[in-house]
Design goal:
The structure is a single chain. By secondary structure, the protein is mainly alpha-helical. Helix content is about 85%, strand content about 0%.
């Protein structure tokens, strides 16, 4: 956690944007459970605007989600098969994301956004089934906003109580 805080201190909200963007691309690295609370600590410790950090994290999450959506849209099933073959341990999460979108349609995107691992993979799966981009954006934005708010606020509250 200290390493993350050091990077936040040095690079500020740019670091938050890059890390959240990469996380929503489902790239290995630091999970949201570490990044988002650390961002909240940064906000509390440096009097950075909470709203600015939240909006920036949602924007980064949407951009990463769009990238995976378009990979799924244009490359679809071969990419999912590649994921299955290369990362077999992710099969349950991918299948869960597919089930949510099949069972609940657009609301499945929202539900998946609140479940670890499935929340980043849902972009790929709904791109594969070619969900309407506006619908995807609306349900993704709400889900990303709730997820990011909860984690950033947890770090912010902790920092506000113990760092002030």
């Amino acid at each position: 956690m200290q390493v993350v805080l050091d990077y936040f201190s040095e690079y500020g909200l740019i670091f938050l944007f890059v890390i959240v963007f990469l996380e929503y691309l489902n790239l290995p690295g630091l999970p949201a459970g570490i990044i988002m609370p650390a961002a909240g600590l940064l906000v509390a410790a440096n009097d950075v605007s909470f709203l600015t950090a939240l909006v920036l994290s949602v924007f980064a999450g949407l951009l990463g989600s769009y990238a995976l959506y378009f990979v799924g849209y244009f490359l679809g099933h071969p990419i999912l098969e590649w994921f299955y073959h290369r990362f077999d341990q992710m099969r349950p999460a991918i299948d869960r994301a597919v089930r949510y979108t099949e069972a609940y349609g657009d609301k499945g995107v929202f539900i998946a956004r609140l479940i670890p691992v499935a929340r980043t993979l849902v972009s790929l799966t709904v791109g594969t089934v070619r969900m309407n981009l506006l619908t995807f954006t609306i349900y993704s934005t709400v889900g990303i906003l709730i997820w990011n708010f909860a984690f950033i606020y947890a770090g912010y509250a902790f920092g506000y109580l113990f760092l002030k």
